[in-house]
Amino acid sequence: MIKEHELDKLIICRKCHTLHEKVPLTNKKKAFCSACNVLLYQRDDNMLNKTLALVLTAAISLFIAFEFTIVSINIQGLQQSLTLSSLFFVLAEHEEYVVGIMFLFLIVIFPITIILATFFLLFFMKIKKAGYFTKRLLILLAHLRPWSMVDIFFISLLVSMVKLFDVASIELGISFIAFIFTLILDIIISKGISFHELWEIHAKIYGYDDEE
C-alpha cells in the first residue's frame, strides 16, 4: 500500500497526464514534462519575496481601481461618472438585483478576498508562523480562484464602451489604468507561482501536519 507521503513524490502533467517522479532542483531550475514539454514545477528560493511584493502592489492598485472614477460618460450634456464601487448601487436603482449581486460577489468581494488571502498566506509563510491558518488559506484560494471574473468584466466594459463611442463622449479615469495594471499583475502572479508550488513550500516550512 502506497503511503500518502510517497504520493507527494509524484506529479502528473496537467496537459497530457503523464506521471513523473519529482527530483530535487537547484535554484532557478525548472522541470518539464518528458512527453509534452509543459512546465511541471520550478524552484525559486526568492519566490515568496517577489510574489509578496507583487501581491502588495496589486492590492494597492485594486484599491485605486475601486475608489476612483473608472469612466465618465457624457450623452447630450448629461454626464455620469462611475466608480466600480458605485456600479452595484446603480444596478440596484435600476432593479437589476440578480446582476447586482453577481457583480458584488464576482467583481468586488471575491477579488478582494483573493488578494487579501494571498497576501496573508505569503506573509505568514515568509515568517514561518500560523501553519494551520495558512493551510486553510490555501484551501480557500483553491475554491475562490475560479470565481474571480475581473478579466471578464474588463472585456465586457471595453465592449460596452465601443458601443457607446458613436452616441456619447467617454473619458477614462485613473481607475481604468489601475484596473489594467491589476489584471497584468494578476497574470504575472498566476504564471509565476502555482498551487502545487505553494503546497510544496507549505510542506517544507510546516511539515505534513496541521501543527504550527
Textual characterization of the structure:
The structure is a single chain. With 212 residues, the protein is α+β, with helices and mostly antiparallel strands. The protein has eight helices and seven strands; from the N terminus they run αββββαββααααβαα. The protein has helices spanning 4-7, 47-67, 84-93, 97-127, 131-144, 150-164, 174-192, 195-206; strands at residues 10-12, 19-21, 30-32, 39-42, 69-75, 78-83, 169-172. The strands form three sheets. Strands 6-5-7 form a three-stranded antiparallel sheet. Strands 1-2 form a two-stranded antiparallel sheet. It has a two-stranded antiparallel sheet with strand order 3-4. α2 (47-67) packs antiparallel against α4 (97-127) and α2 packs antiparallel against α7. The longest helix has 31 residues, at 97-127. The relative contact order is 0.14. The mean pLDDT is 82.
Element-level helix/strand string = HEEEEHEEHHHHEHH
What does the largest sheet look like?
3 strands, antiparallel
- Through-space gap between termini: 29 Å
Any idea what the shape is?
elongated
Mean pLDDT: 82
Helical fraction: 55-70%
Radius of gyration: 21 Å
Beta-strand portion reads: 5-15%
- What is the SS-derived class? alpha+beta
Runs with pLDDT <50, length 5+?
Answer: none
How many alpha or pi helices? 8
Task: Tell me the total number of β-strands.
Answer: 7
List the helices and strands and how they pair.
Blueprint: H1 4-7, E1 10-12, E2 19-21, E3 30-32, E4 39-42, H2 47-67, E5 69-75, E6 78-83, H3 84-93, H4 97-127, H5 131-144, H6 150-164, E7 169-172, H7 174-192, H8 195-206
Antiparallel strand pairs: 1-2, 3-4, 5-6, 5-7
Helix pairs in contact: 2-4, 2-7, 3-4, 4-5, 5-8
